Q: What sequence folds into this?
């Protein structure tokens, strides 16, 4: 596998992409701020420079390049495989209620075989605002089966949760979910995901919820309880909700490894809209974090992904690590956000190229569990090798 990367803090030009075009890549991953991704010149330039490559990517809440984090830039990573055993599917999503069906439609495009080789993994990138990530995953799994590994993330928009964008087939759209399906054994994907958040406060019973909308905790309006815990931070909802996500617990109060971020509030209904489904009759507990704990979580995710990659790849082979970290982590760490990416880079070393973005949701199996879930507030890493 050959990899070339370009990072531009202004609108890119053909000269800056020269090292990528010389590669004649099969796949180009593009992650950029909303302003960069919505610049009409960008998709036109990419189509011109990479006429034979599959172009995929999304808008971000921060761009990851090597061991650094940037804002208002664009990073392009070109990949040439020894055997390009992959294909890209793209579907429109028509609102949050269409999430499961959109996932099923996407899964049907990628299911089965490609040139006689069986599907084993899908890298998923989707718009990140008007979407239920849990339902999207369930729809994909329904179409492709539980044996196919899903990883990826939902687009960001700098923490505004207003308007996100996806690049698919040289077109930038705000109503798209895409999947890169990998087939056969020539291309390998491995993964790791970890949080680093710590629980605080009482455990609360979910007494009323529907899909990803939380109405009541312990029989009381969820928003009222949440505001009581947040204190002065409640003035800045829903944005401040990124700093205080919920941990999902099982009916026996056991840890599930899933975290849910607040996307929106409904003052009239007293409800909270979360980034993924929650279970009525289950339990939730608030969480907070320190920078050191989040950096340790990122390192744990890197160790899990790197260990799996070593088992799948030849020793010394060059690989690509796609990092998808939650925008909430970035807000907590502030000026120290580079530290979690530096910790990941240290684990992987010089043979691995790092790219990625800060997201509105992360898609990955949890460490030690086979099934894929929507995560919030995690660092999720997908290693690609051949």
A:
């Amino acid at each position: 596998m050959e990899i070339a990367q370009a990072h531009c803090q202004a609108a890119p030009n053909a000269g800056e992409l020269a090292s990528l075009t010389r590669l004649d890549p099969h796949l180009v991953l593009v992650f950029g701020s909303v302003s960069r991704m919505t610049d009409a010149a960008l998709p036109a330039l990419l189509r011109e420079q990479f006429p034979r490559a599959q172009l995929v990517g999304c808008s971000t809440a921060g761009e990851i390049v090597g061991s650094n984090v940037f804002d208002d830039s664009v990073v392009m990573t070109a990949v040439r495989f020894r055997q390009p055993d992959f294909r890209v599917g793209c579907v429109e999503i028509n609102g949050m209620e269409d999430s499961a069906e959109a996932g099923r439609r996407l899964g049907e495009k990628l299911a089965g075989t490609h040139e006689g080789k069986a599907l084993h993994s899908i890298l998923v990138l989707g718009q990140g605002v008007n979407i239920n990530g849990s339902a999207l995953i369930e729809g994909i799994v329904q179409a492709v089966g539980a044996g196919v590994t899903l990883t990826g993330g939902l687009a960001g928009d700098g923490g505004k949760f207003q308007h996100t964008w996806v690049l698919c087939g040289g077109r930038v759209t705000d109503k798209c979910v895409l999947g890169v399906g990998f087939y056969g054994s020539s291309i390998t994907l491995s993964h790791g995901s970890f949080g680093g958040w710590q629980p605080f406060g009482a455990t609360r019973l979910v007494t009323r919820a529907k899909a990803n909308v939380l109405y009541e905790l312990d029989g009381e309006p969820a928003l009222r309880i949440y505001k009581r815990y947040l204190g002065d931070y409640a003035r800045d909802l829903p944005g401040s909700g990124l700093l205080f996500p919920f941990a999902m617990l099982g009916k026996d109060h056991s840890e599930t490894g899933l975290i849910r971020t607040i996307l929106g509030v409904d003052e009239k209904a007293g409800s909270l809209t979360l980034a993924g489904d929650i279970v009525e009759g289950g339990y939730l507990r608030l969480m907070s974090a320190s920078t050191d704990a989040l950096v340790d979580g990122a390192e744990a995710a890197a160790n899990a992904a790197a260990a799996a990659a070593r088992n799948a790849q030849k020793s010394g082979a060059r690989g690509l690590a796609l990092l998808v970290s939650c925008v909430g982590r970035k807000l907590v760490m502030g000026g120290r956000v580079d530290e979690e990416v530096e910790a990941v880079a240290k684990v992987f070393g010089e043979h691995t190229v790092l790219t990625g973005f800060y997201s509105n949701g992360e898609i990955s199996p949890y460490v030690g569990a086979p099934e894929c879930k929507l995560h919030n507030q995690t660092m999720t890493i997908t290693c690609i090798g051949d």
In short: The CA atoms of residues 66 and 306 lie 16 Å apart. The first strand starts at residue 2 and ends at 8. The radius of gyration is 20 Å. The first helix runs from residue 18 to 21.
